[in-house]
Amino acid sequence: MKETLLAGTVDYLLQHGISGLSLRPLAKALGTSDRMVLYHFGSKDHLVNEAVAAIVDRLTSDLGTALGAEAAVSPEKFVKAIWRVFAGQEQRQAISLLFEIDALAIRHGSPYAETAQALNAVWMNLITGALESFGHDRSAIKRLSPSIAAELLGLVLTALTTDGSAPNATLKMVASRMAVTRS
Q: What is the value of pTM for the model shown?
């Protein structure tokens, strides 16, 4: 039952967003009562956190599929995979929801701040892991991670608010910044 409620909540959040989420309409859409939702999840916040974690897991899985089974991925392939998964139509609702959570965290703080921080940690781990796999040392990773994460998120946000076309030159520039240059 809990898994069914969680899957239904994911679908509901993807369709309706999180702003103004109320437990009764959600429970009605899930074909249950708000009491049953609370029984299984303890609170609306816990339910939302689990649903967001499921969405992030799906995105991470899709990114893994886009990168393929290769052990060593090039920076260009990594950036293109990020673009395909995060700026693509299939994940548009999911990425929009994650940006919505960030905006709510900025505006209202708790309970969204904790979820936003967890999302940002996943994103930074993805970037730092990629930079590490490309051969960067710790100081380079610390220096590059925030700006590369911001550039990629900015590009994805732009894609969501425009026609979504890929700015190839910009993606190549980000990939070149991720590559290790040896002198």
A: 0.85
The answer to whether the beta carbons of residues 83 and 48 sit under 8 Å apart is no
> Cα–Cα distance between 126 and 64 in angstroms, integer?
11
Rounded Cα distance, 140 and 110, in Å: 33
Dig out the tokens for 75 from the structure.
């920076």
124 conformational bin, left if phi > 0, alpha if psi -120 to 50, beta if neither = alpha
Return d(Cα 112, Cα 18) in angstroms, integer: 10
Per residue in 104-133, pLDDT (tens digit) is 999 998 888 988 998 899 899 989 999 999
Span 14-66, pLDDT tens digits: 999 998 899 999 999 999 999 999 999 999 999 999 999 999 999 888 888 88
CA angle centred on 124, ends 67 and 75, rounded to 5°: 40
E strand or H helix at 65, and its extent? Answer: helix 44-67
